Amino acid sequence: MKSVFDGVFRSGRKLFTMNMIRGYREYTRSTVSEGGKVYREWDPGKSKPAAAIMKGIKKFPLSRGSKVLYLGAASGATCSFFSDIIGEDGVIYAVEISERSVRDLNNTSEARGNIVPILADARKPEEYEWVEPVDIVFQDVASDDQAQILVRNAVKFLKKGGYAMIAIKSRSIDVTKPPREVYKDQLEIMEKKMKVLEKVELDPFEKDHLFVIMQMRT
Ligand SMILES: C[S@@+](CC[C@H](N)C(=O)[O-])C[C@H]1O[C@@H](n2cnc3c(N)ncnc32)[C@H](O)[C@@H]1O
Fold this sequence. Notes:
Blueprint: E1 2-5, E2 8-11, E3 14-18, E4 31-34, E5 37-41, H1 48-54, E6 67-71, H2 77-86, E7 91-96, H3 99-112, E8 115-119, E9 134-139, H4 146-157, E10 158-169, H5 170-173, H6 179-191, E11 194-201, E12 209-216
Parallel strand pairs: 6-7, 6-9, 7-8, 9-10
Antiparallel strand pairs: 1-2, 2-3, 3-5, 4-5, 10-12, 11-12
Helix pairs in contact: 4-6
Residues 47, 71-74, 77-78, 95-98, 101, 121-123, 140-143 line the site of S-adenosylmethionine.
């Protein structure tokens, strides 16, 4: 098992996180035991940050103890891998608009211990303004105003020097435009407030998605 980023490992063509919760087997196809530790396979076909890592991003901002605001958590699949990476000292504030998904997210949260589920609309950060300042804002909501949602939340919650990450889904924004035109428009909105550090297209893991890592302009 080779370490590629803090808490992220690679073995052959597969990515893994170290299982923080003994016996936890959700959202993974396989586990590997090595040196007394158990690693959960993190499928890049099912999780966009894993796809971005497989596509060669140079820096992945999560680390042990990170505080994360996660927008568009669904049932908590990717959250569960973030949860392994940040460990017991970190926390994920996981915002999700669908009541049905939040029911599953509650189960993920109970099993993991470092995920706080929030039933809310990420367009309205005032609904969860009690959330503390965070090191990372991650956004995967697949709506037509993705860039605006990220900027609004980053301005409100990101600590100085913190990172914002987004997976832009071009077809949710404008199906009639070529993906690269959509990415350009979304980047323009975000670059008013943030500096782009890295961007990578997620094909073939996720068709027509761009993953972007940014920091606030100072
Ligand atoms: C692509 S899925 C997220 C998958 C998840 N990030 C993962 O990798 O496990 C997008 C999620 O965003 C949620 N969503 C869409 N609009 C939202 C909004 N305005 N606020 C919060 N969540 C939203 C959807 O209900 C859906 O669960």
